[in-house]
């Protein structure tokens, strides 16, 4: 009887160890909730009247990008712009991806919470022409005629040339292959400080991004 009890105890221990080992290495996706990042400063500069016909001027802007990491959920210092520690960056209505880290993006139209799986293909990276010093961006400010429709990824409606109101396109969700090989999805909610429901062109400060994102830390494509 003692031998049988010892045998059963040994089997129980092996089962527990095996189960714990499988649980610790279980690659199954983790369902995560969206995080809203509020008022990311994308080179805010006060507007001044234009002496000529046209939109207001911004003589004090720095033209520096604000770098962001989906993994850490935080801004990355500009001094680290050449490193693989950031994914995406914002300056005014311009959005760029980390070329050095091969960050890529795919636009999907739909409801953020209902888009549970990152697309398998169709991702686009920024490119840089060393001869012309021109960056071609994957996420553009307006529709582009020089690319195929499936990679024509723009994020805003800006009205007329005289309008300074920037409206993110509703339901435009971007899936990202991040700098560390994981996946994230994000949706821009507002371009104005405080994310006002109705924008007042005279009082609301622009160049402040509010966006919602989910970062999947386990390397799977499911959110």
Structure overview:
Mean pLDDT is 84; it is low at 1-27. The chain is globular. A hairpin with a 4-residue loop joins strand 7 (127-129) and strand 8 (134-136). The chain has a five-stranded antiparallel beta sheet with strand order 1-13-12-11-6, with no helix packed on it. The protein has a four-stranded antiparallel beta sheet with strand order 3-2-4-5, with no helix packed on it. The chain has one domain (32-216). It is 10% helix and 29% strand. It has one helix and 13 strands; from the N terminus they run H-E-E-E-E-E-E-E-E-E-E-E-E-E. The chain is mainly beta.
What topology does this entry show?
Layout: H1 2-24, E1 35-41, E2 66-69, E3 74-76, E4 88-91, E5 94-97, E6 104-109, E7 127-129, E8 134-136, E9 156-157, E10 167-168, E11 172-177, E12 183-192, E13 206-216
What structural class do the secondary elements suggest? Answer: mainly beta
Strand content: 25-35%
**N to C succession of SSEs:** HEEEEEEEEEEEEE
**Rg (CA only):** 23 Å
Give, in spatial order, the strands making up the sheet with the most strands. Answer: 1-13-12-11-6
Helical segment count: 1
Give the number of domains.
1
Distance between the termini: 51 Å
Bin the helical content.
Answer: 10-25%
Mean pLDDT: 84
Q: Would you report the number of β strands?
A: 13
Q: In this structure, how is the largest beta sheet organized?
A: 5 strands, antiparallel
General form: globular
């Amino acid at each position: 009887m003692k031998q049988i009890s010892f045998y059963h105890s040994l089997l129980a221990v092996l089962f527990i160890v095996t189960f714990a080992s499988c649980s610790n290495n279980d690659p199954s996706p983790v369902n995560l909730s969206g995080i809203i990042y509020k008022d990311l400063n994308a080179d805010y500069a006060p507007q001044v009247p234009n002496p000529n016909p046209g939109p207001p001027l911004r003589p004090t802007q720095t033209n520096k990008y604000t770098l962001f990491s989906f993994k850490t959920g935080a801004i990355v210092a500009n001094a680290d712009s050449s490193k693989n520690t950031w994914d995406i960056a914002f300056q005014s209505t311009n959005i760029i991806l980390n070329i050095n880290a091969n960050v890529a993006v795919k636009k999907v139209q739909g409801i953020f919470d209902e888009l549970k799986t990152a697309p398998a293909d169709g991702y686009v990276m920024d490119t840089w022409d060393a001869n012309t010093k021109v960056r071609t961006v994957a996420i553009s400010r307006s529709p582009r005629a020089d690319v195929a429709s499936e990679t024509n990824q723009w994020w805003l409606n800006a009205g007329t040339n005289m309008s300074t109101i920037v409206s993110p396109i509703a339901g435009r969700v971007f899936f990202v292959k991040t700098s560390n090989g994981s996946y994230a999805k994000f949706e821009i909610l507002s371009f104005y400080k405080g994310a006002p429901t109705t924008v007042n062109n005279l009082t609301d400060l622009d160049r402040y991004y509010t966006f919602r994102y989910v970062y999947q830390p386990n390397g799977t494509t499911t959110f």
